[in-house]
Specification:
- This protein has 258 residues and is an alpha/beta fold.
- It has two domains: 32 residues, no CATH class; 220 residues, Alpha/Beta hydrolase fold, catalytic domain (Rossmann fold, 3-Layer(aba) Sandwich).
- 49% of the residues lie in helices and 9% in strands.
- The chain has a four-stranded mixed beta sheet with strand order 1-2-3-4, covered by helices on one side.
- Helix 4 packs across helix 5 and helix 5 packs across helix 6.
- Belongs to the type-B carboxylesterase/lipase family.
- This is Carboxylesterase type B domain-containing protein.
- It comes from Sparus aurata (Gilthead sea bream).
- InterPro entries: AB_hydrolase_fold, CarbesteraseB, Type-B_Carboxylest/Lipase.
Length: 258
């Protein structure tokens, strides 16, 4: 598609790459926004980044220190920003378990979930968009993790690519249950339908609504798939609106004090 839109041709990969390096992004920006789009996140995207020592929780100072690593602003606003984020996700910081869970939620939101929603928002006015939240972890992975860890980044791929059914070359270190195999068939059908037609929907599948102004998405669970609305709305508003506004207010305040 990129070759067709850009006019660069696709006979030679190197020539195509060299040609596209010299293109103005606006040349094919509009065309990209008209392509059907599917995106989503898992319900514990930040779990894989959780320090192994955090089984018994985390203190507020540790949470704020790690938050600071994710923010490129090294000026005086940094402690202010990390404090606001900590307040949003862990509150007063007195509960170590709540601190840990809020910390992993924040990491997942910052690195995967909110970017997915922002991208869905950018596309929804021009093309069909389908958003999901994956809420299940294969049992053999659950058995190797702390009980408080949910569906981590990439967990869905085991079911999406059909590893439950492989018999040679690549094999799982555990076995899939009948329910897990059925879930794998379901998500493979959704993904394959989308690849073929631009819509994940098909016979025998729970309806997956388009993501539009009403922000519908699909919750993918072990035994059922359920339509939801406004995925992580409060966190999204905080990260994309409330936090930037408060940072600007803080900067204006410091400037006026000079």
């Amino acid at each position: 598609m990129a070759a067709n839109v850009s006019g660069c041709g696709h006979e030679n990969t190197q020539k195509l790459a060299d040609c596209m390096k010299n293109l103005d992004f606006d040349t094919f920006k509009h065309e990209l926004l008209t392509v059907p789009f599917m995106t989503g996140a898992n319900d514990d995207e930040g779990g894989w980044l959780l320090p192994g020592v955090s089984v018994n929780g985390m203190d507020r100072e540790s949470v704020q220190n790690i938050i600071s690593l994710f923010n490129p602003d090294v000026r005086q606003t940094l402690p202010f920003i990390s404090g606001l984020i900590a307040e949003e996700y862990i509150g007063n910081g007195e509960d170590r378990v709540k601190n840990r869970d809020g910390f992993t939620e924040m990491l997942g939101d910052l690195t995967f979930t909110i970017p997915a929603i922002k991208t869905a928002n950018a596309h929804r006015g021009s093309a069909p968009v389908y958003l999901y939240e994956f809420q299940y972890t294969p049992k053999f992975l659950q058995e190797r993790r702390p009980s408080f860890v949910g569906s981590e980044h990439g967990d869905e791929l085991i079911l999406v690519v059909g590893f439950c059914f492989t018999t040679s070359q690549i094999k799982l270190i555990g076995e899939c249950s009948e329910e897990e195999m059925q879930l794998s068939r379901t998500v493979m059908s959704y993904w394959a339908n989308f690849a073929r037609t631009g819509s994940p929907n098909g016979d025998g599948l729970a309806h997956w609504p388009k993501y539009g102004a009403e922000e519908h998405y699909l919750e993918i669970r072990l035994k059922e798939q359920v339509a939801g609305q406004s995925l992580k709305k409060d966190r999204f508003v905080f990260m994309t609106q409330t936090l930037p506004e408060k940072v600007q207010q803080q900067k204006a305040k410091k400037h006026s004090e000079l």
